[in-house]
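Quick one: structure tokens for this chain, please?
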Amino acid sequence: MSKIPALLFSLLALSAPVLAQEAAPAAAPSLAVELNALQPAENGCRVTFLATNTLGGQLERAAVEVAFFTSDGAIDRIVTLDFKALAEGKTKVLQFELKNLSCEGIGRLLINDVTACEGTGIAATACLDGLVTTTRPDIAFGV
């Protein structure tokens, strides 16, 4: 028996498991919000977020109520941050300058509520239901 047919048979046998693998399941629809940076600004602290909408359609408006805690755990303030329109599948950089807030004094950020989640074909509860949070600074951030 020739070595070429045996080699061909071996290659086909090895490739069978690859062909039989199923496609990975699609990711669940989400509104991903990353706390990206805290930077001292002229009048306070500049807070930078990255937001990615994969909810299945254009968000005409998204807004979140965020509680800022001090490093010793006390609530400093609660603010509503308006993310405005978020295109489907696109990541958007959002910066908010919070007056009279020291970046160094922030110990934790908590998304207290989603106050706006508006878009064609998107349920009002979709933003909170699909909310995924991550953080780059060494500060707790979540729901």
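Residues 3-20 form the longest helix (18 residues).
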